[in-house]
User: Fold these one by one.
Assistant:
Number 1:
Amino acid sequence: MLRLEGVQIRSGDFTLRADWQVETGARVAVIGPSGAGKTTLLEAIAGFRDLAAGRIFWDGRDISRDAPGARPIAMLFQDGNLFPHLSVAQNAGLGLCPDLRLTPAQWGQVRQALARVGLEGLEMRRPAELSGGQQSRAALARVLLQGKPLLLLDEPFAALGPALKLEMLDLVAELAEESGATLMMISHDPADARRIADQAVLVADGEAVTPQPVSALLDTPPPALRAYLGEG
Amino acid sequence: MARRAQPLSAAPGIIATVCVAVLILGALAAVFWRAETGSGLGPADWQAVRFTVVQAGLSAGVSVLLALPVARALARRRFPGRAALIALMGAPFILPVIVAVLGLLAVFGRSGWISLGLGLVGLPPLRIYGLHGVVLAHVFFNLPLATRLILQGWQEIPAERFRLAAQLGAGPAAIWRLLEWPMLRRTAPGALAVIFAICLTSFAVALTLGGGPRATTVELAIYQAFRFDFDLTRAALLSVLQIALTGAAAALALRAAMGEGFGVGLDRAIRRWDAQGWTLKLRDWLAIGLAALFLLLPLAAIAAEGAAGLFALPASVWWAALNSLLIAAGSTAILLLIALPMAVAVALMRHPGWVEGAGLLGMAVSPLVIGTGAFIVIYPLADPAALALPVTALVNALMALPFGLRILVPRARAVIGDFGRLALSLNMGRRAFVRLVLWPRMRPQIGFAAGLAAALSMGDLGVIALFADQEVATLPLQIYRLMGAYRMEAAAGAALLLLALSVLVFWLFDRGGRRHAEA
């Protein structure tokens, strides 16, 4: 269970507050206008921003002062999720061992993970030799190998076409289902949120509001969300 | 207090910065301390100051003035070999001064090619020694630099403006008024200031082509105070003067902030619709042709005159070459040990100004001033001649540091900005980050910086002249000694060897950095 207790994140004059919790295994969409602080919220949870106040707990343990890599969190960023000079297998292998000194058994695991996301036979390719969708799959294979219980997505598939994006989101949902991981994903598209999330957090006006069921939030949007989504 | 998580530590870079600052400021402090006991400067010393400023001003003015038509021609003409010519204009940066001087002597000297031609029609030979010789050599080195800097200004005029001007039917005169003159008013003062600052610290050129009371730079006067009078106090006083001169010029050059001159993208030719008249075409081709000739002739002369001497080089030349290679290797290693951590620190820190400032100290002080300071510190403790090679390597590294940082910092920023968070989220340790990310991503820049440092060190004729005794020499110093003994054929052969070695070490490092590197 992820719990944000009286959290305040400050960036210049801007402050974002959050005080709520998410059950293990939940799939949470983070929705809100541009610049409202969605990325800021995820970065704070992942440990890339310090909290001005409050604490973050995972399963009752305070993780607010842990280094990003020591948190039970895997994160996919908007871009730069792969090292361009490393092969697909090496990129994925970083999820098992970040200094890439892997045992033969671990390389076997890497191959399995790549096969699971549909990249069999492409292990030795560099990211530049893959399509956009395949690059996303390689990053997901690494997430799989990281085996972290909380997965944060900061719109990693934004550059993909609509069909490919849905395919990736479905794959993410499947993988989260299999591993029982909790999922938080920033979404600009209400349809995406409805498709794979069960809850949604609205980030607007300096606050990340307590998660609600996606349909409830989107069917009767509060004013800030209505302005963002547009009437009709 | 905001603590940002970082994939690397700034500490090694901060330690390196402190070392650099202590070395340079320590040398300056030694100079100031020693200068205090001095009795003042004589008229010859003030004459040196006057000559230094005059020759630097003339060199900068002539370089920029001549660069204008060349840059303009390169900006509006497209021809095969244009990229190669622009690349050649970057070459003087790694060309050893003494090699260029020998090449210029072979072309413009008393018994050079032009004098021979003049003799055929009954005219007296050229005289290259003195003010005009010094300016000639400085223009040879800085005309290409000025051309590149100004060409960069031309390239930064957006192509759309030229399209708009063409659509309005603007002729060359209107384009000059609308687009080119405003651009030059921005770029030319910067080019002038940079070249003025470079020429102020001229030592090797003044040593070989100047000399005598009427053509002595401050830098050369420091050397003479050492070698001829062994008057450390006067050397220190002159150093204080030089510090004031170069410090002011460096501040001026930095204020006229500008592009880096060996930047990328200069080989892109913008499509132009103006300047189609045949007189303009003729003028442009003349400018390009003369500039190419001016740059290539001395190099050709070195190749032609050196080839004969290359196979009869005295053993001393080979030993000197070995010393030079050792110094270049040491200097490159020191540069990377300092510059890489500093670049990382600049990329990591929120307020890296003082680290960058320390990196620029090398531009504000001249090699001979640091050498003087080092000599003052070392002399009571040890035999300076015994330390000639390591001190030279160290000073060369400090002098290459500003260039090294210019190459490394932007890339370090990009690598840490692009991949820092990902590495952190993967819990990658610092060693692993260096091995798996920083090194492979920065290898081309590291290779380029190392190549420049090695080539600069190979060709350096400065501190070594202060410290060396008759037993030890670098290749440039050995060439100078051969020239002094009028063994011009051996000197030319050694110069060709030096040129080949400088280009080779640059190429090896640069190439090594690029091999198998991913874009």
Number 2:
Amino acid sequence: MAAATDDAGDSNEMIRVVSSDGEHFEMPEAAANLSLVLRHMIEDDCADAAGIPLAVVAAKPLAKIVDYCTKHAAKSSGLTIEEAEELKRFDAEFIEVDTDMLYDLLVAADFMGVEGLSKLAVQRTADLIKGKTPEQNRETFGIVNDFTPEEEEEICKENEWAFQITKPPSRLC
Amino acid sequence: MSEATGCHTPPATAEIAPDDLLAEILLRLPPHPSFLSRASLVCKRWRRLIRDPGFLRRLRAFHRTPPVLGFFNNSPGLPRFFPTEGIPGRIAAEASSLRRDGDDGMWWFVDCRHGRALLRSRDWAELLGWDPMTGERRCITVPNQMQAGASDRNAAVFCTASGVDEDCHSSPFHVVVVFTSRGRVFACGYSSRIGAWGVLMSTTASSPCELYDEPPALVGEALYWLVNGSRILEFQFGSQVLTLIKWPMGMNAIRKWSIRLVRLEDDVLGLAFVKDFNLHLWAREVTDDGASKWIQRRAIELDKLLPLPTAMDGNWCRLMPVWICGFAEDQNVVLTRTIAGVFLVSLQTLQFKKVSCSLLMKTVYPYASFYVPKGGGDADDGANCGIERL
């Protein structure tokens, strides 16, 4: 009958992580558990005072990921509608980053197995792509157009087959 | 602690497959094919990922239901495509170029389902199975016995590809033709896989039968057409059973153009009809003893939902009845003709969109599809139908 206020297995222990460029960060164990990789290492008893080395995550994205996990772990279950809304707002502001950071977060969240952040970064990237022409997408994401002019012409024709650009059907009326 | 065995440094970036990540991103583009179509123009890598059959399978699984891209209509002079989003693309041009040799040169839409359209010649001597996304066309000759002496006809197209694992565009399709003749109702199925018609089934009608023009509902393994005299023709194509069943009493007064057989979300046969500007949905539910009864499920006040013009002295919209002109069963979307034009209404969210100003669309054929790369279909040459491949 005791009130189960804390999530089972939660502890107040702080987990240390080290970025690829040698910066140290700390976060509550519940936050670290949101990363599949960190959780496995904690379970394997590999979290020590020296910190878990994350060889491919630089300090800048890691700082963001620690923020994300700390915020989400603090509000993990039994959310009120207001809290859920607040978390949504946090996510929306959190992911308003430039494309370099977005790319770092995409790769780092995927690598660390932070599912919520991974989905957030993936959706944000898709949202950036969807409103752009192929040329704008190349510029945004630093992609080189590797089609030959002949291929491009052929593909444009094929593209025309189905649909061109989405606009409201105002021309119909 | 760090000396403990089994501790390791997490794997390096080289082990992350960026293709997987990019595929995850591309999956989350809106389901309208134009988004993937445009993304495939960015570079070879994006194009390769988007055209990959595994990716396309995941796309279908992720979005589940293909979006309604528009609808076809038998406009006087030529069949037309009206996109619900976007400017008319090649599908519109292709639809208006569907010409055949002989009589009036017209193909008439009869049904559209699972990414396939079915058209007929005026005399029903020939049918055309057309995949608007791949451009594949197959001409089907209708056996003489289905032409001579038949008074009313209707037909259905569908494919039996199972969900996300198979793509209807690359799968065989089936056609069922139903017709009435001398007090009997007939049905016969055609399979594109074997390119042949099956056995002709028939049943006796107690009173003269008149098949309505509207396309049928597909529920489970059965097709349902409206028949005059408050009757429904049921053809179970799996077990090849053809029967006439009754629709609810008291609906005889509903105008023919305001009533449709539909498949409801829980995969039961439904009747959608408009009465007093309310869209009613009834379901045919099977009771414990195996009998079936019709139960009212919903009523939607269309005159309150849709932006219909009103006059000082009352509702203008009441001057013109609302027609149900189309229904997309997988998307649960109804197309209604009102005094203000044609609206597409989602029965799930009640969101609506005006898709045409026309007041004359009696029957339209909604078309839904995911992205399909060009070159995905095996096209027939269609030579014996007088069709030119573009």
